Amino acid sequence: MIRTLITDGSGRSDFAGADVDFIQVREPGLTVRELSNCVRGLVTDSVRNSGARVLVNDRTDVAIACGAAGVHLRNGSVSPKLIRSVAPPEFVITVACHDADGVLRAEGEGSDYAVLAPAFAPLSKPQSRATLGIEALRTIASRAKIPIIALGGVTAENASLCIDAGAAGVAGISMFQIRVG
Questions:
Q1: Model's pTM, two decimal places?
Q2: Can you give the residue range of the structural domain that contains 82?
Q3: Fewest CB atoms less than 10 Å from the CB: which of 8, 20, 142, 177?
Q4: How far is 56 from 41, CA to CA, in rounded Å?
Q5: What is the C-alpha to C-alpha distance for residues 1 and 107, in angstroms, rounded to an integer?
């Protein structure tokens, strides 16, 4: 199971020892310099300690410059095909998706993973979209050609439901912050 810790926007970067595959840096309040420093620190720490690969939200320039493993693109962001034309060969691209059409677009544009949300009601922010639920996750995952990462309201208790429904992994802010913090 792929586990993705998403940072909580607090600027915190001390995730050494987190038992995750990816650390997705979601820090909209940081300046580019602060974001770069945060990403460099995480890349250095993850290589030295946990082996987690670092992804940067929507800032391909920062991800490449800081040696991150890849980028996470918001729904409607730049095309993964464009990023592939400038990124290193092993650069990981994940795309936020909210329905089957979004997953299909992500596949067609060359994304490595589709982050499908919200599986359940989010725990770390107000709910702005209808939840997908397990059956929709199962249907979308069964048709997807790329791995699906379930996001939104995922907890230690319900993560296995997502995996049983066909998700390749789970992502979250609250789920991993509580364990690591």
A1: 0.93
A2: 2-180
A3: 142
A4: 13
A5: 20
| DSSP 8-state symbol, 109 | T
Q: Pick the closest to residue 119 from 52, 164, 177, 180 (CA basis).
A: 164
**Angle 120-126-127 (CA atoms, 0-180°, nearest 5)?**
40
CB 116 within 8 A of CB 133: no
User: Sign of dihedral through CA atoms 39, 42, 47, 53?
Assistant: negative
Measured distance CA(95)–CA(57) in Å, rounded = 10
The b/e string for 5-22 (b: 16+ C-beta within 10 A; e otherwise) is bbbbeeeebebeebebbb
Which residue matches tokens 């991150």? Answer: 68
The two three-digit tokens of residue 170, written as one number: 């789970």
> Domain containing 130 — which CATH number?
3.20.20.70
Q: Please report, for residues 25, 35, 87, the alpha-carbon distance to residue 10 in angstroms, rounded to integers and kept in the order given.
A: 11, 11, 28
Q: Are the CB atoms for 101 and 75 separated by under 8 Å?
A: no
Residue pLDDT, tens place only, 49-98 = 778 999 999 999 999 999 999 999 998 899 999 999 999 999 999 999 99
Q: Are 20 and 46 in contact (CB under 8 A)?
A: no
Give me the number of domains the chain comprises.
1
